Amino acid sequence: MSLEIFLDLFSQPCRSVYIFAKKNNIQFDYKKISLFEGYQYSEEYGKINLLRKAPAIKDGDLFLAESVAIMLYLAEKFHTPDHWYPADLQKRARLLIPKALGVEIPKEKMDNAVEDLNASLNLFEEKFLQDRPFVVGDQISLADLVAIVEIMQPVGAGMDVFENRPKLKAWKDRVRAEIGAGLFDEAHQAILYAQEAVKTMDPKKMEHFKPKILRYFLS
Amino acid sequence: MPLELYLDLHSQPCRSVFLFAKINKIPFEFKAVDLSAGEQYGDEFGKVSIIRKVPVLKDGDFILTESIAILQYLAAKHHTPDHWYPAELQKRARVDEFLSWQHTNIRTHGSKVFWFRGVLPAVTGAPVPKEKMDAAVEDLNMSLKTFEDKFLQSRPFIIGDQLSVADLVAIVEMMQPVGTGLDVFQGRPVLSAWRDRVKKEIGVEVFDEAHKVIMNVDTLPQTFENKGLPEFLKLRIQKMFN
Question: In the record, which residues are listed under signal peptide (chain B) (predicted)?
Fold first, then answer.
């Protein structure tokens, strides 16, 4: 199998790539990596992705990083159904979920973080979703995939973002049904059990995280 | 109905859209939005985009936000030369890869340095605390190093022999801290050579036109004194230092 996909399902962009590949029956070699254990800093992984982040793919001689670039590449290469990334110009243009909206769940003080997240969710509902069943219209696309995995991240931390947001919840249920409940739940298993998983993690393996975390709080 | 582009050339993503349209001779109406006056929070701009950011494209009834989406839309609609956003799968993937990566790297860190050096002191009248400034500059340096090591390497342009939207986006981002007097190209010969190449390909005149405003950002304190400080700026600054 020439296509290898390097993933840690704790990571949102990994989940969108995983769901997309699985849903479209794209054959790939699933290379499971552990970000918490710092595998991305190994010499081995450096050869795959110099940016030292996940997801990454190796397709023959091509090494590619960045989940959106990866999904666009796979969509084109494997001629996935049009609705994922519509050929129609205006539909396609609508697709881009801005990084400004809830991509990085901020690690600063909780209040600011929650406030920012809420503002992002409001904006998502008002601008990107509105009364449509999916972001671009009647059919699911990459935009919905990227959005859902991002929005599920705080859920994994115990914050129910769907509470008091019936529209958002209805959209989530729709997306989950379209993807397939089995696949959706499988992709999110790691993050939904994150709070449990953290308890059994070896603190020594997390040493590499310290400077990064300190920096987030410092700045 | 002509294409409308809502822009403030203080903003990096506005500059990439501006340059792309100009270079490709795409006719458009320049709708100036004054960010320093908080115009993006006004009722009128709210009708254009509730996200309240620039750039925004208005093509008849079709309104589009997000500079990357706008660039891709314009490239497709106006059939711009292939090198900007190549049709070939792997070349295009490389452009997409950079466009994705830059949001949370050069963009984030370049903007932060710009705010810390150019905006905050103009507002608060005092420099930003040293540890914060040093951390911000270090993050920016790391991004620039990654840019050179991974995205540029020994190629003339990011994806190879020809200029693409990736280079356009990269250069406008790097010019942001330059406007505040931090010359990111100094001491980086590979980066400087790339900058000169890009500038030449774009056209020095239009490049300078796009960057005129940001290169004069030291007039911001005067602007705030004349117009007063917009509310959103006060709130944002409070948040930054919490």
Answer: none
Distance from CA of B67 to the nearest CA of A (A): 9
Strands A3-7 and B62-65: unpaired
Q: Do A22 and A54 fall into the same domain? A: yes
A93 φ, ψ to 5°? -65, -30
B130-172 confidence digits (pLDDT tens): 999 999 999 999 999 999 999 999 999 999 999 999 999 999 9
Whether residue A92 lies within 8 A of chain B, CB to CB, comes out as: yes
Considering the domain architecture, whether residues A110 and A210 belong to the same structural domain is answered as: yes
- Whether A32 and chain B come into contact, CB under 8 Å, resolves to no
The series of mean pLDDT values per 10 residues for chain A, 219 residues long, is 90 94 96 89 91 93 94 95 87 57 45 81 89 92 92 84 93 95 91 70 64 57
**Torsion from C-alpha of B16, B98, A36, A219, nearest 10 degrees:** -30
Interface probe for B, chosen from A49, A61, A88, A99 (most Cβ of B below 10 Å), is: A99
CB count within 10 Å of CB B89 equals 13
Q: Same domain for A113 and A189?
A: yes
- Assessment of whether the complete model's pTM goes beyond 0.95: no
**Containing structural domain, residue A168:** 94-218
Contact B103 A219 (CB under 8 A): no
Interface mutation target, options B63, B95, B101, B173, chain A, most CBs of A under 10 Å: B101
CA distances from B40 to B34, B48, B118 (A): 7, 10, 20
For A96, which of B68, B101, B135 is closest by C-beta distance? B68
Helices (H), chain A: 12-23, 43-48, 67-77, 89-94, 110-123, 142-156, 166-179, 181-192, 194-199, 209-218
Test B103 with A103 for CB contact under 8 angstroms. Answer: yes
CATH value at residue A46: 3.40.30.10
Contact check, Cβ <8 Å, B131/A77:
no
Residue-range domains of chain B with CATH:
3-84 (3.40.30.10), 89-234 (1.20.1050.10)
State the count of interchain CB pairs (< 8 A) between A and B.
86
Q: For residue range B104-124, what is the model confidence (pLDDT) as tens digits? A: 999 999 999 999 998 888 888
